[in-house]
Amino acid sequence: MKMQKYICLLLVCALGVLAKLEFGCGSIAGGYLHGTCIESEKQALLVFKETLIHNSNYFSSWVGDDCCAWHGIGCDNITNHVTQLELRNGNIGGKIHPSLLNLKYLTHLDLSYNSFDGIQIPEFFGSFKDLIYLNLGHSNFEGSVPHHLGNLSNLQYLDLSEDSLDPKLRMDSIRWLSKLSFAEHLDLSGVNLSRATDWFSSLNMLSTSISVLGLSKCDLPDNIPRRLPFMNLTSLVSFDLSENYLSSSFPLWVLNNTNLAHLYLGYCNFDGLIPESLRSLSALSVLDLTVNSFQGPIPHSITNLTSLSELYFTDNKLSGSISPEMGNLTELTDLSMWLNSFKGSLPETFCQLKKLKSLNVGKNRLTGNIPECIGKLSNLNELILVENSWEGFVTEHHFINLTKLDVLGISSDSELILNTSSEWVPLFQLTYLYMYSFKVGPKFPHWLLTQRKIEALKLLNASISDTIPIDWFLSLFSNSPSVDLSNNDIYGDQLSLISRAPNGLAALILSNNRLSGEFPAFLCNQTTLRTLALSNNNFSGELPQCLRNLTELIELDLMNNSLSGKIPSLGFLGDLQYINLHNNKFQGKFPLSFQNLTWLFVLDVGKNNLSDVLPTWSAEQLPNLKYLILRSNNFYGEIPLQLCQQSTLEVLNFADNQITGNIPACFGNFSAMVTGDISPNHLDYWGSVQMMDSMKGYEQVYTSTLQFLFSIDLSNNKISGEIPKEVMDLQGLLNLNLAGNHITGKIPDEIGKLKNLIFLDLSRNELHGPIPQSLSYLNFLSQLNLSFNDLSGRIPSGNQLQTLNDPSIFAGNELLCGLPILKPCATNTNSHNVKDGHNEGDTGSVSDDELMWFFAALGPGFSVGLLGFFAAFRFSDIGIHTSILVNRFLRK
After folding, report:
1. What is the CATH number assigned to the segment(s) 569-891?
2. pLDDT tens digits for 530-554?
3. For the whole model, what pTM was predicted?
4. What is the C-alpha radius of gyration for the chain, rounded to an integer number of angstroms?
5. Is 57 helix (H, G, I), strand (E, B) or coil?
6. Which of 236, 314, 319, 248 shows the shortest CA–CA distance to 281?
7. Segment holding 880, helix H or strand E
8. Cα–Cα distance for residue pair 730/757, rounded to 1 Å
9. CATH number assigned to the domain with residue range 465-553, chosen from the 4 options 3.30.450.40, 2.30.30.40, 3.80.10.10, 3.60.15.10
10. Which of 408, 414, 479 is CA-nearest to residue 448?
């Protein structure tokens, strides 16, 4: 009997031990059993709650005597001590009261995803000696991370990560982390470590039990030693070093961690070759090298990393052909080679990657046919093949088993043709479809009309000559779609006949087609519309006042139509950044409501019939305005001095109006034109900004090159007075056109300061005196017109002027002499030659030596002039970049 009692007692003890093992640290209320909490700990929690800012519902369960039953609280099942405090994602802020120190047995503390803005992590957190888990991530703590956390000797999990672009947490040293000898998970992503110069040497001092290490977006100092020891964190499984801009070659020091499965090195500015020694990371499952400057081919050793499931080479400088052995990576689910220089064909072996969900080889130099067997990759939900040089046909067999396809992008700069039967109905329903620079037409393909889930449709330059299928078009609106059908031959007035449509359209881009009729009234109901681009069509009639309903509109592009009437008030559209009404038939006054558009950076109402005094506003009203085009209207009056406050201006075009008065000397305040610094693109929308401006005497369209344009055009007005010397401080100017006015005085001697000038037109004015020799300093000048003034003296020569040998440039100036007009200069005429030996004893004729020197100088000047000519012909990205680089080189 006594033996039975002992056996029963042993069983009870064993059950107690098991209970301790299973529930030892207790559990959060609601998950497992709990006891009655300790009174002092309950009071500590209530004091803690009182100093918080919170939603009362979050703590609605914090009533009654048993705090172990409260939301977020876990207690030990034996002792009833509070061991867990988990208030994750509670939208909690305020102060953290030190009453928590009474929770002496706390092992788990989670305050992540809250809003403790403006407060530091409390130092007393370092006093929780039993703490195993501490998560303070994404809670907006600020200031220095207390080194007292290094006292948490039992800590296994520490997360201090933040997503903020402006990190508020900082650490001047990470050496104290080495005291966390049991740490397994350490995430400092988003903590500012810019002063932690010991970061690299401290890595090898971390616990060898570390399996997850996050150092993303830490602004790590770029002080990696040349001779690097290996990082001997032998248990490391995941290492995130991304977004630190370390400017070195591939970090070979990670290659000793043979258990590494996840390696994130994106956005680090690494360069050089990807090493073959990557083969040592045989367990690698994820390799992310996104946005670096790696060069050369993909190393062959990568094809041996058969555990890889995600591989990202996005946006590097990799080149060469793609190895067919990439087909060995049969575990791949995600592969991105976007924006490199890979060439050759896409290997058929890619069709062996049966687990592939995302394949992106866009923006490379791939050629040949798109493999038809891609249609057998039944797990694909994203297929991006845009901007290569594919050729041949794309048929329904390319999509035969792609039942999960959600994103499809195909384009080519070669002859690629879509060839599907009219009866084909795809097995997929796409959300995003991009088919541009690709012969999809001439009719809207029937299969496209079966796609009812589309949120983004881009059929730009798709050789479509058809009317818009209205029923299908309207059916998309419930998906909040962005629709781009620009650069086709779409015609008809169907859009004008739609009276109402479901609200939801996000972007509508129909530019460069043959659409006609009145402005589509249904657009007034599209209150979610952010981009509306209908330029280069045949729309007519008036713009409705109901456009004011489009309160989310960012871009309005109606250039080159036949719209008439008054411009409606748009001042209620506070998000508008871009307005282009160029070349229509608008009449009346300039809308004063434009001055309410504080985000506006492009305003073009050129080539209309507006009649008004030049508008006046302060820079505070339009602080972002960069491009102001009022040309070819009937604006009159003097240029308001308030305009000079608009220091952000990069393009000012008032040509072909009735403007009088002087050019204000305060034009020198246009600081953007002084520096010539390229402005960032402000727009985040589907369309491409386009703007008309006159260069070389005719209008040109600027799209991607708009950011390179710095221009002042006041031509063909009634402006008088002299050219202010302050204008010569605008060294970023590419174009200065003051032709066709009544400007008097001399050409400023300082004109040579306009180092970037490509076009200069001062013709048809009343300028007198000599042409400044400094004009020859303008190394990029390719178009010059000084005709029909009263200029006198010898025409300067040398450098770039030698390429400008058209006599008509100087016509109508009877007192000019010298080359290229071949009019001899009289004896003792002041010479402006850089290299002239005839200042005294001039014979009065153009000498053989002078002619020989003139034509010989065409050689060295011609190459620079040619660059300027091509820039004049068309401001291509390459041309402008080259021009800027050459200019910087010459300055050096």
Report:
1. 3.80.10.10
2. 999 999 999 999 999 999 999 999 9
3. 0.83
4. 36
5. helix
6. 236
7. helix 877-891
8. 10
9. 3.80.10.10
10. 408
